[in-house]
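pasting for ref
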Amino acid sequence: IAHTIAARPPGRQPSARRRDLDPGDVHVCGIRGSGDGLICWGNRVALDGTSGFGIVELPAQGGEVFVDVVAGRATTCAATRAGKVVCIGANHAGQVGLPARDTPQPYVDPAPVVALPADVCAIPGLALAERHGCVLTLPRIGGNCPTSYDNVVERRLFCWGSNAHGQLGPGVESSAGGAVPKLVLDPVPPL
């Protein structure tokens, strides 16, 4: 099966930190050329919760367009142009944005969305480790996501998942991890 992963479809904003393709520990995911889905391959438990190896296509839902993808150990998260973060795969510490459970979170319709505050939009700048994830955000303007990601002054960083080693930032109780994102940096210093 041949698939195309294009450089950047119209309407996708450039970013030094945006990824169209990312390798995880047991799988790889890429944004389809049009941005209307992901193509992932490798260990299927990280992709759709089933066993074995293979290729899985994960369509964007409701006209969404993916603008960033990150593959962790056995979890994948993707940011959409509408400012949402969708995650699938292993969820033993809440790293897909849902309450922790021992079985993988398959890709379902509608896909689970990380519960970011309503006044922010996820922007390219996702990070994902084995048990937690983080995302850069910008404030919504008139209820909409910004059309440019150049505003470095108002960027905020939210993280969710395990906090066993302080991954969710200073001042957060070690047991306070889980599916609800915590504000870690406001503002984010220039990176």
